[in-house]
From TrEMBL:
Source organism of this protein record: Nonomuraea glycinis
Cofactor(s), by name: pyridoxal 5'-phosphate
Gene Ontology MF annotations: aromatic-L-amino-acid decarboxylase activity; pyridoxal phosphate binding; transaminase activity
Gene Ontology biological process terms from the UniProt entry: carboxylic acid metabolic process
Gene3D superfamilies, sorted: Aspartate Aminotransferase, domain 1, Type I PLP-dependent aspartate aminotransferase-like (Major domain)
UniProt keyword annotation of Lyase present: yes
Record-given protein name: Aspartate aminotransferase family protein
Residues bearing the modification N6-(pyridoxal phosphate)lysine: 294
InterPro entries in the cross-refs: Aromatic_deC, PyrdxlP-dep_de-COase, PyrdxlP-dep_Trfase, PyrdxlP-dep_Trfase_major, PyrdxlP-dep_Trfase_small
Family: Belongs to the group II decarboxylase family.
Length: 456
């Protein structure tokens, strides 16, 4: 055994204590750490021949890399839709590395059953029936990819072929219809061989990001009975808008299509009495994307994909090999990865520790804080809201000169007080603040609002 590896093994308890103390110092300093930083390019150093041991590596990381990291786990990181990491989720994530389980096979541990229990808890949390089965993937992109891969197989089934066996060339032209599909949908279509050009945008309602169901009905009718894929949104990234899922599902009485719902963060609206109705009809979806490192506040990377057609899912992702035994319900046959970490453990800890009530409190608080920031921005003459605050995203621009939005974003980032991402909404340059962190409070909203006032 290498001498440094042997030394680390002998000192493992002390190393774990030292790492824990270092982690606590980072977490204790999140409140005052610059929320985001302008990255400074660092050229890679050559790989050392003799290593420096874990203590040396920890010291080198603390000096060279950690100071340049953002406070994305903190309460004023409002860019993208990024959750933090609750204490329970952090505990689960740490133990994930300690136990180092590969849950894709049921041959050697009960890890797959923990994942199945976690999926069942999540399904119950957002109000779905048992018919929706699922598995863990790395994030919303892979969840959308998995759902659309199953949809692709369904299209083949409608035409009497198996795409998993015969390939994409046997399928012919495909139509994917959506109002405001997330960019990951186009990426998934590219990876699946369907092509980004298969995505056909359908008009949205005036002043909304929700699809016009009448226009969708007409677009489906124009296909003359050819099966299609419809991608609906439960929470758009710019304004948190929702498609009318019930009305879309009802169109299947007249048209054949697979309904995939991108509910990456919007699924958790089920935990708010005032917003749960937005998910009416979600149970009718054929496949669903839910991202957990957003509003569930577990570490990257974590998401689930859900579908009512496990048979098609297994047909797509099965990994037949003699050493794995017969194709069964093992998780290896359900997602692109043959092996992966036990992502479910962090989510299991979060759900076990805080339950429905605790997770609902986070969602309700974030919703209230998003509404509060919207009110503060609406009261500032320098800014203009571009859409009502429908969920947890506040979308706004500079009132007199939207082209200045990049300067405002940079000024806020440079202040270290907050991080907001730029976007374009209805052709207008904008900023968006997305609330999904478990730590965020009214005091944080005050600091963000003051930073915006100074940046104006």
């Amino acid at each position: 055994m290498d001498s440094r590896l042997g030394d680390d093994l002998a000192q493992l308890p002390e190393l774990i204590d030292a790492t824990g103390a270092y982690a606590v110092r980072i977490l204790d300093g999140l409140g005052e750490r610059p929320v985001a930083r302008v990255p400074v390019r660092r050229e890679p150093l050559p790989l050392p021949d003799p290593g420096i041991g874990t203590r040396g590596a920890l010291a080198a990381f603390a000096e060279r890399w950690e100071p340049g990291f953002s406070a994305s786990a903190g309460s004023r990181y409002l860019g993208f839709v990024t959750g933090g990491c609750t204490p329970a989720a952090l505990t689960g994530d740490w133990l994930t590395g300690v136990l180092d389980q590969n849950p894709t096979s049921g041959l050697d541990s009960t890890a797959p059953d923990l994942e199945r229990e976690t999926v069942a808890w999540l399904r119950e949390l957002i109000g779905l029936p048992a018919a929706h089965e699922g598995a863990f993937v790395s994030g919303a992109t892979m969840s959308n990819f998995a759902g659309l891969a199953i949809a692709r197989e369904w299209l083949g089934e409608q035409r009497g072929i198996s795409i998993a066996e015969q390939g994409i060339a046997a399928l012919g032209p495909v139509r994917v219809l959506s109002g405001r599909a997330h960019s990951s949908v186009g990426k998934a279509l590219s990876m699946l061989g369907l092509g980004r050009s298969a995505l056909h945008p359908v008009d949205v309602l005036p002043g909304r990001e929700a699809v016009d169901v009448a226009r969708l009905d007409a677009a489906l009718g124009a296909l003359n009975g050819e099966p299609a894929i419809v991608v609906a949104n439960a929470g758009t990234v710019n304004t948190g808008d929702f498609d009318d899922l019930r009305a879309i599902a009802a169109l299947r009485d007249r048209h054949p299509f697979w309904l995939h719902v991108d509910a990456a963060f919007g699924a958790f609206a089920a935990l708010s009495p005032g917003h749960a109705h937005l998910l009416d009809g979600l149970a009718e979806a054929d496949s669903i994307c839910v991202d957990l490192h957003k509003w569930l506040n577990v570490p990257y990377d974590s998401a689930v994909q859900l579908t009512r057609r496990r048979d098609l899912q297994t047909r797509v992702f099965q990994n037949a090999a003699a050493y794995l035994g017969p194709v069964n319900d093992d998780l290896v046959h359900l997602t692109p990865e043959n092996s992966r970490r036990l992502r479910a453990l962090a989510a299991w800890f979060a759900l076990a520790a805080y339950g429905r009530d605790g997770q609902a409190e986070i969602v309700r608080r974030d919703l209230a804080l998003a509404e509060l920031l919207g009110e503060r921005i609406a009261a500032m003459p320098a800014y203009r809201l571009l859409a009502p605050v429908r969920l947890n995203v506040v979308c706004f621009t500079v009132a007199d000169d939207p082209a200045r939005i990049g300067q405002v974003a940079q000024a806020v980032t440079d202040s270290g007080e907050a991080f907001l991402t730029t976007t374009t909404y209805e052709g207008v340059p904008a900023l968006r603040a997305a609330f999904s962190n478990w730590r965020t409070t009214r005091a944080d909203v005050d600091r963000v609002a003051k930073a915006l006032e100074r940046a104006a």
